[in-house]
Amino acid sequence: MKLAIHWFRRDLRFNDNHALYEALKSGNPVLGVFIFDTEILLKLEDKDDARVTFIYNELKALNDNLVAQGSSLLILKGKPIEVWKDITTKFDISAVYTNTDYEPYALERDAQISHYLKTLNIPIHFHKDHVIFEKEEISKDDGTAYTVFTPFSKKWKQRLAEYPINIFPSEQFTSNFYKTDNFIFPSLQEICFEANPIVFPEKTTTTGIIKNYNLNRDFPAVNGTSRLSLHFRFGTVSIREKVLKALSLNETWLNELIWRDFYITIIYRFPHVVNHPFKPAYSNIEWQNNPQEFEAWCNGKTGYPLVDAGMRELNATGFMHNRVRMVVASFLSKHLLIDWRWGEAWFARKLLDFELASNNGGWQWAAGCGTDAAPYFRIFNPTAQAAKFDPENAYIKKWIPEFGTAAYPTPIVNHEFARNRCLEAYKRALS
Prior knowledge:
The protein has helices at about 20-25, 40, 50-65, 80-90, 105-120, 150-160, 205-210, 215, 230-235, 240-250, 250-270, 290-300, 305-315, 320-335, 340-350, 355-365, 380-390, 395-400, 415-430; strands at about 1-10, 30-35, 75-80, 90-100, 125. With about 425 residues, the chain is of the alpha/beta class. Strands 3-2-1-4-5 form a 5-stranded parallel β-sheet, with helices on both faces.
């Protein structure tokens, strides 16, 4: 029997899944496949990495749903090319369907898989699902890339008006999954990981939060953000559905969703940003890179309460409020003159919603070296930021129980000294 295969990656849902919809409508029974990619897993430092637990739980829920319908997911582990070689020996495949991933590693992996499948005359179909507009779809009139968000967002909204969003009701066709005895669903231990007890945010958010997003989003003590970024990252919710919701409720929240498209476009069109500053001149900065100060920052013991609260929240929950992310990133790169890539790597290790494009874009913005970056002379005063956005210290006290006591450390560096040192270092690099 010929089977169509849907390769699940960053689209762990049955509803409004573009590639899955095309597979289920192809006329052949669909086998759902997920590969725990050892090229990625072996680089993870923590065997209880919460994101692996999250992926595992979501896959288990999808599989339980299919088992109730007489179907099953095929869950495999290994190097993708080797796994695909095994799959193609065991199944008669009509075509492979998957949603496009835009990160450099993913593009290289997918090119390799595509080439291999081509040798077997098996077509692979890539579909747009993770973003609203992809690749070169949002470009200047001359075809070049936007590197500033505001004109990008204007063009984005213009194109949306011209090309309304299509929903792909894949959930209506799940009866077209391949009927089979249950495949063995591996344990987390068999994948060489341990369960993490972190509580994951819900897939839904209230209409009130979105309606008031522009009013409350900057205050970390307030429940004023959607907390959906983890679900966007792994595709457990549909970006199309959420953009439609944003259009009717709150333009500020819509703009935040457009930022996702912007950074994903940047990393696709300028892949060098993964390891290097977008602006080459910033490669000349002489970083201090003090390991003791970096450790203090990682552990939330800098003596700057808003910075420390943010880092402790991150380490405990895998989440950090976006306003606080900007402050802690600016503090590391400008107050401590520690290479932004050190901070980026720590966030990559700890954030539940870690997404290479957004994480890289945010850190380069804070360090002044990225697209649409804050100018290098914009240096957040963490004390002033705390007074403005956490005026009653509610957020700070939640995460720093010793705040206001002798047990809390004195500031690791003087603000004015750090500001002047930063300005001098950046001026030298850019002169």
